[in-house]
Amino acid sequence: xxxxxxxxxxxxxxxxxxxxxxxxxxxxxxxxxxxxxxxxxxxxxxxxxxxxxxxxxxxxxxxxxxxxxxxxxxxxxxxxxxxxxxxxxxxxxxxxxxxxxxxxxxxxxxxxxxxxxxxxxxxxxxxxxxxxxxxxxx
Length: 138
Ligand code: DQA
Known about the structure:
The protein has a single domain (2-137), classed as Rossmann fold. The protein has helices at residues 20-23, 28-38, 52-62, 81-89, 128-136, and strands at 2-8, 42-48, 68-72, 94-98, 120-123. The chain is built from five helices and five strands; from the N terminus they run βααβαβαββα. It has a five-stranded parallel β-sheet with strand order 2-1-3-4-5, with helices on both faces. By secondary structure, it is α/β, with parallel strands linked by helices. It is globular and about 40 Å long. 1,3,4-trihydroxy-5-OXO-cyclohexanecarboxylic acid binds next to loops. 1,3,4-trihydroxy-5-OXO-cyclohexanecarboxylic acid binds at residues 11, 72, 74-75, 77, 98-100, 102, 109.
């Protein structure tokens, strides 16, 4: 069974409540439970943190034996050399996901410290982007 983890960064615990016109009105937990039901042959895990170092620790923890990492580092995407270096340091391939179309938004969101070391990047597909990323590992 393939082991895949979704890692969400800061403020994504507020999905459903936070700026629903941009991020939608579904909570991530509901979406994740549906996804697990839809892909019963995948060992699918979820981790969220608002703390940069915790995201880096999780990448180190899973990054040498999981089959895939789906990472939405949220605002840290655009600022964190540390998370970018962690993605480079690990062996498990990382697919970068963003719910919104970051290239249609403010210029500071056009920069990603993760993309250069990601297997691929998906943005602008809403929560469906996580499923597309999952499919890329199957
Ligand atoms: C986001 C886009 C980021 O620019 C923003 O800081 C987020 C969410 C997205 O999923 O669209 O928090 O990663």
